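pasting for the record
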Amino acid sequence: MSTYDVIVVGGGIGGPALATVLARAKLSVLLLEQSEVYADRVRGEWIAPWGVAETKRLDIYKTLLAAGAHHLTRHVTYGESVRPKDAEAHALNMGIFFPEIAGPLTIGHPKHCQTLFDAALAAGADGRRGANVTEVTLGAEPSVTFIDHNGPQTARARLVVGADGRTSTVREVARVELHQDPPHHWFAGLLVEGAEGWDADVQAIGTEGDFSYLAFPQGGGRVRVYGGYALDQARRFKGPDGARRFLDSFAMECAPANQALVAGRPAGPLLSYINADSWTDEPYAQGAVLVGDAAGWNDPILGLGLSITYRDVRIVSDILLASRDWSPQAFRPYAEERRERMRRLRFAATIQARLDMEFDPAARRRRERHHERSAADPSLSAYGVAIMGGPERAPAEVFTDANFARILDLEGAPR
């Protein structure tokens, strides 16, 4: 039976990133990934400026750039109550959050995963692809049993890291409770190619009628687009022509630049997800710690999954490299920071969903009213600092029930 310092279950983003950092520090790491080839999962391709800062702290940033990661420098918010020229004239400079970071970073998910897996191997981790985990044992003597090309194997370690996503086996074995908010809307994603008319430095969002969208260019005429629509429209983009109808939904009077997206071609699957926040209070147990989606995730409307994961990896790796004490008590600071981080991001996501992903006449009036009020009182948009600059960068008083009601112009609105 092989023995390691750490066994990482899950070779997507968080697992290989953590394995790379630990292996560079000369810890023995076994990295297990079930897939043989990384597939387009229609998520995990945009890193907020605060997440980019984490990749720099982990010494992974240059690796991503070498793999073709692409910086975005401006953000445009389109809307029914705003003239397109006015929206574009007030584009947000994405370099304001960190002086050394030009803006968010985009990179295709399959390439992102493969780049990190290769980096882990180069750092000295023992990486296995096609590894199907059949049993996880935690406690004082953690072990993982898996089947790969060499047949059934069991490995021991001082710690098992669950980086195995939303349906985490490690989380289940550790009996870590997952909390989840009710779903609010549908969110579909598609990779588009042939969109050379789209400005490669500009990301955009907008809502018109019964559809809301986000667009994140990756360079070379490729743009990852997302669209939000009501829960009662589950079959809106089903069928063989669903991708085409999805792209046609981007034809908006408020966002004429979207014609470049409509003219593009689907370059991957169209997948839809129900949006909701999920979180854990204590993402650890004896013999295990969770990172990334395994520890809970933010509503993808904010696109912060990668940033959350890189912060998880940085904090957990700091703990593991600072001391040989890897007991549950050692991970309490991680749990406390993550609990408050996710609470603040739930706050921001709920506001964004209420503003952008509701489509009745009252919602349209709310958007128009918010645009007018926030122009006069910028503090109504202070929660946005948490999205781009990091949840700790906004004052604590931003994330209160009273401020929630103030932002949405409500009285005593529950959160």
